[in-house]
Design a protein that fits this description.
- By secondary structure, the protein is an all-alpha fold.
- It has four helices and no strands.
- Helix 1 runs antiparallel to helix 4 and helix 3 packs antiparallel against helix 4.
- It starts with a helix and ends with a helix.
- Bound molecules: protoporphyrin IX containing FE.
- Keywords: Membrane, Transmembrane, Transmembrane helix.
């Protein structure tokens, strides 16, 4: 079970890398647009994150920090809202407001920081 949990964590990290990587491509030298790959990464990170939020496959004596996970879930929902609003504006032919575009990258980094540091 512990190995399976590590595999789910690996999938969670692939989701994070997909989201942050696709955002970084747009941010640095790209058109600063919201892309479908960002939503794919967020979905992978979210589904695997929810699986990791349940207390299974933990080493003996280890416990889950629910405040930390709850905070990450709220931030994930905000990123999802930013992606949704951004892509809707793009479909209408409008540009994505900088605060919205940069918010996606900053909040993704914040979530990775919370995971690693809290
Ligand atoms: C954009 C959203 C997210 C990003 C960028 C992200 C990033 C990360 C990273 C980098 C790690 C590895 C840290 C380590 O192994 O110490 C991690 C672990 C983890 N994440 Fe996420 N995560 C996100 C969303 C979520 C969500 C929504 C949940 C749960 C509802 C979640 C639950 C977990 C859990 C349980 C772990 C295992 C290690 C720990 O307890 O922190 N994550 N996440």
């Amino acid at each position: 079970m512990e190995t399976l949990r590590h595999i789910v964590l690996f999938i969670h990290l692939i989701g994070f890398a997909t989201l942050f990587g696709s955002w970084a491509v747009q941010a640095f030298g790209g058109k600063k647009q919201i892309t479908g790959l960002m939503t794919v990464g967020l979905t992978i990170a979210g589904v695997a994150g929810l699986a990791l939020a349940a207390p299974w496959g933990l080493p003996t004596g280890a416990s889950i920090n629910y405040a930390k996970i709850g905070t990450k879930l709220v931030i994930l929902l905000i990123i999802g809202a930013l992606l949704g609003i951004g892509s809707a504006r793009q479909k209408r032919g409008d540009s994505v407001p900088p605060v919205l575009f940069w918010g996606v990258g900053v909040l993704t980094a914040v979530n990775a920081g919370i995971a690693a540091i809290w």
